[in-house]
Amino acid sequence: MNKTLEEILFMKFPNLYSRGLDFGFQCNDGWFLLLWHLSAKLEPLGVTVSQAKQKFGNLRVYLDYNKRPSADAYALIQGTEQSSKTTCEDCGQPGELSELYHWWATLCKPCYNMRKERRGHAHP
Ligand SMILES: [Zn+2]
Question: What is the Å distance from ligand 1's center to 44 Cα?
Answer without folding.
Answer: 31
